[in-house]
Amino acid sequence: MASTVPSPESASPPPPAAAAAAAPQPSSSRSPWTPPLSSHNTALAIIPPPRLWAPINALRSLYDKAYTRWPPHINLVYPFVEPEDLEGAMELAPFGIFDGRKKRNEARGVRWDEGVKAWTGPDGKQLGEGGGKGGAGPVFEEDKVRVRLDGVGVFEHRKHNTIYRCDEAAGYNLTSTSLSRLRAEILGELGHQQQAEGEEGKGQYKPHMTIAQSEDSRSSAHKFLVEKVGLLPTVEWEVEHVWVLVRDQSDGPGKGKMKVWGTIDLEEQLGCSIFENPVDWEKALKLDAGWEGEERDVDEMQRTWRFEEERGVWVRDDAGKGEEEAKTPELLSIASWNVLAEFEHSSSSTTDQEARYRLILRNLLSPGAKADILLLQEVTDSFLSFILSPSNTSPESQALRIIYPYVSHPPPSQPDAYPLPNFLNQVILSKHPFSWSWLPFARKHKGSVIARFPTIHGSNPDQPLVLAAVHLSHGLTDMTVAAKKGEIQRVIGHLKEMFPQNPWVVAGDFNLTSSSWTVEQAVKAGKISRETVATLNSIERMWREEEGLGVEDAWVVGRAALGERSYQEEEDIMDDMDGEGEDNRLFSGEQGATYDPTRNDVAAKVVGSGGNMRPQRYDRILVRGQQVLRIGRFNQFGFLKTDQEKGEGHEMGQYGSDHWGVRCLLKVVQQETTEQSDKMAGEKSGATTLETSVKLVTPPNGPLSEPGSLKEAMAELNIFPSQEETDKRKAAFQALKAILLDTPPPSQSPQPSTTDPTTTSETQSRSNQPPLIITPVGSFALGVHTSSSDIDVLAIGPFSTTTFFSLAIQRLRRASSSPLYSQEYQPKILRRISSSTGTMLELSLCQIKFDLQYCPAAHIASHWPRVLSTAPPGNAVWSLPALTLTKLKAARDLDYLRRTVPDLAVFRQAHRVVRSWAKARGVYAQRFGYLGGIQISVMLAKVYKALALGAGGVSGVGVEELVASFFEEYAQFDWEKDMVYDEVCPWFRQKRERGGEKEVYRRTGREAMVVLGWFGPGLNTSGQASVWSVRTLKEEFKRARDLLVKGEVKSWREFLKGSGAEDFLTGYKSYVKVDVQYWGLSSSKGAQYVGWLESRCVMLLVDLHRRAPGVYVRMWPGRFVEADTASQQAEGDEQTTTEGTGPCDYQASYVLGLDADTTTSREDLKLALGAIQTALQRFEEAIRSDEKYFDASNSWMSASIVKRSELGNLQLDTRNDWVGEYTPGEDESDSDPEDDDEEDASLLEDLDETAPKKKKGKNKKPTEETQQPRLEPGPKLRSAADVMNRLRWDSAIDSSDYVVGYEDRFLGVKERALDMWKTEQTDEEFIPQHRIVYFKRRSDGQVVWDRKTKKDEVFGSGL
Q: Which residues 6+ apart lie within 8 Å of 1188 measured at CB?
């Protein structure tokens, strides 16, 4: 029990304005008048001194219904007399007290001594005047009325319970005895002797002070409240006045506030004081008006409690000792965690409860949680007492008290401390001193702790850091969402009014439902209205819409601007990349969730079956830097579980709370010059506000702007792959992964191997062998794939490419006939391609095409995937060959994109929208200089990050707004001068701040469009773009912008469905039509021919641009077929497929639109037309002369210029079986630069002893279809690298006299001076040596080395 708080003072007497009644005099003829005690409008009460009210009223204000009508009091007589009888009753009441005191003095032998004019005792000792000769005599100690409240009790009523404070001494106690006597003396004088004495067991007077009411005495809420009232500190005082209260009935019977009518003085000079008119008790007690009201709570800062380590006790930091000793830190970390209160009261759960508390302590002391300022939500009295009480001598508790010596609330178990006001409380722990105040909200028990840290400031110490700790209302209903909006408005309004120039941090549990799925389900279930959805979205944007706030979401900045993971290394649970390389589990608004029942077992238990199991980003840290605070790292914590081995009381394997904690690192800038400011801007913890031209664009009001409308349109148009299709792809990838790793098939229990145990691959089992990594890349890994997309797979391992593919092919062939795999999951190898860009294996599994590549990088494989996030671009880890880096580029770009996009679900939806639009408008074909998946990713990420960082919150940008903003940005983008790249990417930002855009990337004159990926080599992902393709993109972006922003379309469905092909076929007067036809027996060979011809169209575009630069050419990246014959061709293909007989008759056309420049003269136009005809003839000759793909016996093609009317009735060919696939077993192998050194057979056998042994003389004769003529090899030609080194370093040769001829992918053979040739693989101008065609001497034009003719005059090699 708490120690006694001394209180020698009494309540203040009434002011002089009161009229004093005459003091009672002895009389034997007083009136026998007995007024009834039946009025609830009057009372005689004992009121404690105001200085004792604070802890009492802290609870009464929340739990006592009579708080606003009554002061803290003990009823002496209630109900009392009718108001009109008060004056008569008050004339009599003092006489009862007078008589009682006089009788006790007479019994003591006290008498009046006329000689000395004083009262004397039996021994003749003077005792004072004691009211004079006619008085009752002096007041002895045993006559004084004393009150002590140190216990708690409950009155159980029929509909509710009253929880009160009382004197807990059993039987006789001072409080009960003195107050009962006083009450009896007054009632006896009024003629109620029987009631004054009380009846045995009934009606006995029980002095008590009401603190709270509750409903069900069996409920946990009631039991917790009783415990809280029991934690109030003991108070005692001497009663000097009995207060006469009367109810103000102007508000109705029984509803008015009790006012002071008068007082009965209990001093030696007994009497009664009466006010002329009843006054408020605040005024009667000389209290400041509104002292317990809202304004005082907000304006007056309270001191914190400081831990005195020497004394081992928490004391009030009234002197501000810490402020004198503390200095502003350079780095400041702020953490917030909802620690989850116990909602079920059970006396038997103490062990389990303390075990969870210990687990929370362990998490708070973990490296990822330690902070300078710690905010906790849902803090209870028992929890705070456990972690802060000096009686807890555990190392964890002691460490916590040392780390955080300042707290807003001390442990309630400390005798002189108070209980926490609410059941769920917010508490601040800090290394730095602070003061705080309570900002109440409209809802009871809700508010914000406003803390002011005087030692944390910038150059102006009068504008220190202000922190608002929040825990907003819980729930997703119309009422609770409106309440949350009001609460945030309250915080913003208060901070703007009281601290307009200060840096702010607003942190805590915002309880804002962020999952779009949860919101949609609530609307469907009728729990919230569409208006509430709009309100929820407006709440997210409040921080942005308030002008001049400059508030940033630390999670968004840490993720989007700095590329920080939100979890520590040991927190693998938070890695959202599942085994398939994607995470389609997340809906919009679920990225960065801090409340995740799908991963947190405690949260799942709290939600229960049938509840909302979607992840929510409830907990946030918002920062208003004001050039003082700059956001750095951000992480989550709280992932330590109960110790299974120690057998802790908390349920095994569970987390400490249903929330993850959040922590943010801030840089504090105290003083800075302009130069320092510029320098700090480039630091990692520098300013994060992005200066950008990107603007948030909202579609016009209506269907286009409604949340969820875009997703509905995408679903109607089947843009999303079905869940069945997605599951099938995941299963197919897992099966391929198991085959390549030689592990048991997924979703099947391990079965006995049908082969000898010694033949099992040791690739994974060797402890000293780096692992083999199988990871998806591309659209499937990003989660934006379509039903027709291939799955790109990258393998990373420690051995050579030749060894890997030999091993892979063996395992794939073994799996194709293995009983462990069903027929559907048996892989089929389609093709192995070995070329200058590396080796790739095309295969099919579950009717899904896979492209498998391999990257030999042992160190990367050993540290996968952490190496992606822990090793920046300049790290020595990436000092790898250019070809290796090229293969890793897709995985590195993907990882960075996934880690930094604010909301991956929103990004995915927007990506699918842009791609669907681009396909419909004929601008989705990277090989033709249009958009591809990587370009859309970079362009969309740039816009999304700019919007998110400027919007103050990730959820503030919906997918509808993101798409509209995307088209607005690129409709007005200057493609000729500007570059598209991730402007908040740290290494790009640092380069830009050092030397501008040129430092980021040095653009060459031949690059018509620059869209930079994140990692080299080959930063520009749009190297294939031409002037014509850029013009096409600009026109399409402007058209889309006008449709959306100007409201020229009425729905997203209309926008996405579009009529791109129809517009293209009618948009030009003249066209180039490339007809292709195949009528052979092999459909796969026909598809190979069509695909090859389509790839050659790129060269046609290059040639047309070179010969007729004044003519605009736009190629539609797809094939057209005659509408009249399309259905017949489809039926013929189906028959060939099902029956396996008959020729394949396929006819289609590629169409290019022609448009003359308005400045081109008629004569120039005629010349251009002739040049185009020449280019078409050359194109025809090149195609028909290629014997490898073109067979005149079953193939044909022609290219011609036609008018619009001559196109015929064309429509797009939507068949997927003529997309350029190749014949299984065909090989386009030239050489593999990675494998100049062939691995011997023994190494391969070591890796997989199941490899089939080659039998001499048993080689299978190739079929007629795949047999190709072979040329006898000639003398080996010295490599281009050897020639280059000789020309450069031979002192007898002048290197400046030589040029290098190389193959440009678009412009043909180009030349560059040998001395200007870049050999560094990471150089942006690096050109692979396999593209070198010849070396030529300038002085005489003599070619000294030629790859094609095998001429070598440098070394004399070759022919």
A: none
